[in-house]
Amino acid sequence: MKNKFITVAGIQSAVSADLKENLINTVKMVEKAIQEGAEIICLQELYKTPYFPQYKKEKKDKYFETIPGESTRIFSDIAKKYKVVIIVPIYERDKKGEYHNSAVVIDTDGKLLPTYRKIHIPQDPLFYEKNYFKESENGYKIYKTKYGTLAVLICYDQWFPEAARSVKMLGADIIFYPTAIGNIEGVDEHEGDWHDAWETMMRSHAIANSVYVVAVNRTGKEDKLKFWGQSFVSDPFGKVIKRASSDNEEILIEKIDLSKNKIIENEWGFMRNRRTDTYKKLL
Fold first, then answer.
1. What structural domains and CATH numbers belong to the chain?
2. Which residue from 71, 119, 242, 266 has the highest number of Cβ atoms inside 10 Å of its Cβ?
3. Which of 48, 118, 141, 168 is catalytic?
């Protein structure tokens, strides 16, 4: 089978209260990733804003953007100039005045592809996301780009195998997971290692669906949350082939071979041996 190499990148950054500074910093990191050969670049969840859902009642209107808006204009120009694909996760207010945790995929010609809006929304201490984000009813999406067919699932989506299987069935070769997750100051992780569970879930999605996974997490401390970074790229058999550090801003960049997906899928038979007649309870 012929190799199909592409270079993916994730922008792992720490976020301040200054939205303009966060934007400028991210633009610099994206341009550096392009200089290093990146062809598909993914930013982290809510890349420009602090993780405000850790508070029950934050003034959300200072954080939203529209589509199109400032972020999409800037990154559309960059995508078109350098012929790259950029995934831009933002806090969106739509034309109806509803708020979403969204990701805009910008193609190599600078065109905005249909927006993906986060489907699974958590509501837990310091993750009060239902106070700020409407649960999407627009479904899962795939994006057929020059470099490969990709899907975007956002943070809490990563815990649900149904989401990963859905985008696989739609044709995705890579799943990008822009994320904002870490440890809570003073909370005992009595269930076990949260980070290990987080990474294990996404690696399992890679294996079960014979796809590459690129998880892009923020780093740094924001009030009671210590984001653990450690963005990573997993191959379609669950091997982490590149991982960022826990504490530093980094460009996670890796060349991957999409032909490996079909090799794993054919050899292990996870798709052809499915027993859909036994899955009715899932509906």
1. 5-282 (3.60.110.10)
2. 71
3. 118
